[in-house]
Amino acid sequence: MLTLYHWEPNANSGKPMLALKEKGVAFESHYLDLLNFDQHSPEYLKINPNGTIPALVHDDLLLIESTAIMEYVDQAFDGPQLTPSDPYERWRMRWWMKYFDYYFAPSLSMIGWSVFVGPSVRERDPDELRAKIDRIPMKERRIAWQKAIYNTFSAEELAESGRRLDLGILKIEAVLTRRPWLAGETYSLADANAYNTAYALPFSRPDSCNDEKTPHLMEWLRKIYERPATQSMASMGRTTLVSRMALLAR
Amino acid sequence: MLELYHAEPVANSMKVLLCLKEKKIDFVSHYVDLMRFEQHEPAFVAINPNGQVPVLVHDGAVITESTVINEYLDDVFPAIPFRPANMVDRAHMRVWNKFVDDVYTPALSMIGWHTLVRRIAVNIEKGKLAELLARIPLKEQRDKWATVAGDSFTEEQLADSKRKLGISVQKMEAMLKNSDYLIGNQFSLADLNTYSNTASLDRLFPDLMNPTATPCVIAWVERMNARPGVQAALAMPNKVPDALRVFGA
Fold first, then answer.
1. B-chain residues near A61 (CB < 8 A)
2. Residue B233 covered by a domain
3. Superfamily name and number for A2-76
4. First-to-final CA distance of chain A
5. How far is A106 from chain B (nearest CA, A)?
6. Cβ pair A3, A57 in contact under 8 A
7. What's the domain count of chain B?
8. Is residue B30 part of a domain?
């Protein structure tokens, strides 16, 4: 029995969704509405006490942390290999996943929380929101929600995240000029990881990421978008977030 | 040929030194003197444009990021494996390694920069400091030097880091309750990656780590200290003056 607890096919939730789709592994989908704070409900905290998504439950075992789940999915199930067999390419794959998880995704996430997540919930009843924030188990997540809801990300923080993203976009473009996929000659977990963060860059950072300035990055996004696994993942989206993916259609 | 560019057997350099020593792999050691800012010199930046240690060079291929380097070493030299064969344990190992990199190490690092690097930074003459800062490739690193050379981190930031250290050591205590090692009762990359952070934490924060609050963590450090690989790594060059040694041997 395999159950994935996830939100939209986006960011961390999208990472294991795409790995499972690429492997062709059937799983039970348990959608949690992040904007309704489903991930902090008592029922879900019984499954994952951190109150974070995604989480994968395989038989009676709980797996957390999206990138670690991706590596697990690739190793534990049959299907196409999503990890290169060459150790150096494997290092590149893990290097890029580390780069996205530690550096690129948090920068994009801060901007996403400030322009999308915050405004999506801000208008709700203030007492209800406060109660929802109070039950968040992790202090770091409580702070992120407070900043998003009360719009207290500083201009300096947002500018720094923007700087990191623009630097990252150039870095990705540079590597894709040299090879078709992030780790080497074949599609790997690094591409699946990165896509879920990077797919909306042409929409959210149009001045830095576009056909003129970053043609290789654009081609790479479109190639991933066209894969049947990506299409199948995208069809699981319920909000307008996923509609940004359609901009990649040729 | 296998070469490692590294500093003292502390922090990220220690993670990789330990892995190599525990695997009994011969390598050419290139000591990079952080006290003399060699990591920002053109010769080193030509190898790692980020100007950071450790860096592994394997037959000319440059391998960076200590946690990812250790996975690479386990891929290439599998004779003495440090990843659990069980896939669920392996996933738990990676979750822990990520926690160490995201939470535990940055928290300890902030306190290390505040107490140790700051003492170096404030003694550098202003003009010279600007010159040194200008050579640092990463803005994040430049900002950190400027911070400790100036007013340093706020009390609030330091308190939050100490809170994170408390959470880290309590997590370890729970993991070691019924197990000699952090993951699946077997020595793994998780232990290698966590050793340096924890080896002297009891001296730095006796209120967080002590025989009453964290007996299992203390016993784990002793178990680690007894390993020949750990001793071999600790015997690597250490040029940090005694007065500046806050953690490590």
1. 88
2. no
3. Glutaredoxin (3.40.30.10)
4. 38
5. 11
6. yes
7. 1
8. yes
Q: Is residue B67 part of a domain?
A: yes
Mean pLDDT of B79-95: 97
Q: What's the mean pLDDT in A33-50?
A: 94
Give yes or no for a contact between A107 and A157, defined as CB atoms under 8 angstroms apart.
Answer: no
Residue B217 pLDDT > 90, yes or no? yes
A63 and B94: CB-CB below 8 Å?
no
Residue with tokens 């998504």: A53
Token couple for B60: 């000319």
- Which pLDDT score is estimated for B46? 96
Q: Shortest CA distance to A194 belongs to which of A224, A160, A174?
A: A224
Please state the length of chain A.
250
Measuring CA to CA, which residue among B64, B90, B110 is closest to residue B190? B90
User: Domain span at residue B37?
Assistant: 2-76
Do B200 and B222 meet the contact criterion of CB atoms below 8 Å apart? no
Q: Predicted ipTM? A: 0.90
The DSSP bridge pattern shows strands B55-58 and A55-58 to be: unpaired
Q: A194-227, pLDDT tens digit by residue?
A: 999 999 999 999 999 999 999 999 999 999 999 9
CATH number at residue B56: 3.40.30.10
The interface residues of chain B toward chain A in range 44-83, judged by CB-CB distance below 8 A, are 58, 61, 63-65, 67-69, 71-72, 75-76
CATH number of A87-248: 1.20.1050.10
The kind and range of the H/E element at B168 are helix B155-176
Q: How many CA atoms lie within 13 A of A195 on its CB side?
A: 31
Amino acid at A241: L
Residue B204 lies in a domain: no
Instruction: Give the start-to-end residue ranges of the domains of chain A.
Output: 2-76, 87-248
